Amino acid sequence: MLSAKNLRKAFGQLQAVSDVSLEAAKGEVLGLLGPNGAGKTTTIGMLAGLVPPDAGEVRIAGEPIVGDTSELKRKLGLVPQELALFEELTATANLDLFGALYGLSGAALARERARVFELVGLADRAKDRAGTFSGGMKRRLNLAAALMHDPDVILLDEPTVGVDPQSRNAIFDNLESLKAAGKTLLYTTHYMEEAARLCDRIAIMDHGKVIAYDDLSGLLKLAPVSRVVVVELADFHRVDAVLGLAGVREAELTGNQLRLGIERVEDIPGLLTWLLSQGAAIDHVHTERPTLETVFLHLTGRSLRDA
Amino acid sequence: MTAFWALVIKDLRLFFGDRRAVIMSFIAPILIGSFFGYVFGGGPKKEQSKVKVLVVDQDRSATTKELMGSLEKENGIEAATAELAEAREAVRKGRAPVAIVLPKGFGESASRALFMPGAKPEITVMYDPSHTVESSMVRGMLTGQIMQTVSKGAFSGETGKRTVSEALRSLEGSTMDAGEKSTLQGLLKSVEKYNALPPASSGGGGFSIPFAMKDEPLTARAGVLYNAYAHSFGGMAIQFMLFMGIDVGIGMLLLRQRGLWRRFRAAPLSKTVLLGSRACSATLIGMMILSVVFTFARVAFDVRIEGSLLGFVGVCAAFSLMTAAYGMLIAAIGRTPEAARGLAILATLLMVMLSGAWVPSFLFPQWMQPVTKAIPARWAMDGIDAMTWRGSGGEEAVMPILVLLSGALVFGVVAVWRFRWEAE
Description:
The complex is a heterodimer.
Chain A: E1 2-11, E2 14-24, E3 29-33, H1 40-47, E4 55-60, E5 63-64, E6 76-79, H2 91-100, H3 106-120, H4 135-147, E7 153-157, H5 165-180, E8 184-189, H6 192-198, E9 201-206, E10 209-214, H7 216-220, E11 227-234, H8 239-243, E12 248-254, E13 257-262, H9 268-277, E14 281-288, H10 292-300
Parallel strand pairs in A: 3-8, 3-9, 6-7, 7-8
Antiparallel strand pairs in A: 1-2, 1-4, 4-5, 9-10, 11-13, 11-14, 12-13
Helix pairs in contact in A: 2-3, 2-4, 3-4, 4-5
Chain B: H1 2-17, H2 19-39, E1 51-57, H3 62-73, E2 77-81, H4 84-92, E3 98-102, H5 106-115, E4 124-127, H6 132-156, H7 158-172, H8 178-196, H9 199-202, H10 228-257, H11 260-266, H12 271-301, H13 309-333, H14 337-355, H15 368-372, H16 376-387, H17 395-418
Parallel strand pairs in B: 1-2, 1-3
Antiparallel strand pairs in B: 3-4
């Protein structure tokens, strides 16, 4: 349904996107995961026809978007990262405007408006000005505005930035409904939990390039460790010595928390025994599976949140 | 067309939903136009406005009393007597633009100076330096009145009789050429004889200005009086419409900042629809501003379209379109709303100033006059003046309309050329 091949875009000396290729089938949710400045928004801009690529090609349903008024644009719905709404207008006036931009009018416009209000759960606030909405409600209206023309492909650029957990869950429910309805979603985020929960496949981006592209389990296999052991302890500072132990791939001490990346679960008892023998006062121990954060850290040498 | 009109209606809703924009566009030009109209002469009046002149009469002679009476009858001035210190203070503090001081012995000295060489009496004219035009006008009127009053005294009054006798006596001892002396003595003796006649038969003598003046203000047609509100409302409507143009440009830059431009560009809309709808809504708002402002001026101050109504509508429509194109230009050239606002306000104020919207353009220095013709707003001002109080026919609106449409075209072409279509 959506494909991009070898997309490149530079702004002056800055190479924002380099050779990005992506594909998403009907009913698939494709995630673009990366830190701020990784090139996700520019990629979305090229996919939506907003930014002409310097090289490469975008196809929707097998056809390239040509020209400002291309009919293919009707198959696309864009949810910008910003709250792209007229806050001075009512929710209804906003939706009517964005529906009219795609040629909707009269009964069809009213029908679609009712449908998306129902989907995002804002029907009871339809007559209120968008400016009076909470941040989470604005995010839902921002999503609704992109759905008025019932697009097949929905491009979502960080749609949950700055919202509370309750609104985030509401948005996730909306997106899962859309996926169930057979819509193709391209979802950019820098929250790995969101990508892991929603996306069938994930492209990890950094510095304008796709550095990994697979489904969740495939990406997790890229992690150098099978488990992370988190030990809360005191009176221990010898991180270098831990790295010398058999089976330990990574070690990071932050405050009183020691995170150890290990190859085998069976090595855990030996590790704890060694720590005790070094005089460490262990307070709490738990294990974690590797996450996308671990994968990103492994691939770039930086934490996703710090990048 | 659904999208086009949806965008136009959205702009109109946003404009009328913004109280500040409505006040700035409708109320402000009415308030400031009313003020300027009042200051520059107010509504239609049969009587022309008068310049206040304070007269310090230190002579208190029959001549100066008669001169004062003549000044009081002058159409263009409002003469009042005052003491020297009082007059000086009034001019210094701006309460009167001009004061004249008639020195002691003025009547006699002036009569004598008519026939004899020697020192002439000196009249001091004190004036407010910010009112040089009024000062010059008062000098002209004063010269005429003094010539009439003093010469009349010389040919009929007691002072005249005395000064003629004195002149004859001084001629006796004069070393003047015999022929000239004889001629002058003949003239003065004739004056002496004339002065000896009974007043009834002489009917008063002296020089008088050998013509009478009739004032005829040229407006739309005979009987139509000048209404200063017509110009001031036109000027203020032009100014605040251009400010509305700035808001149009800034509003488009804000669309980018708020991500709305990305949404618009993602939709299957042509550049013509995107820019054309904004130009259309701005033109409609401009026409509404002019309609409301001139309707108010008609109801409150009797400002009428004395010329061609069609011409007036044409000028208003062309200026509204030019304002819309000006807004597009601001949106195209400005990088951010913050950066664009200051520069746009400066450019707009310059354009308004040079258009003659604040003060009539004939007051500008000579070198600046041709420059103002390159400012489209100047043509809007001229066109509105022509169609309102000047009462010109539609043909006088053609050139302003053409210039304004050309301005709209130039602004529009540059705006489209420089516009950043990408939603980066």
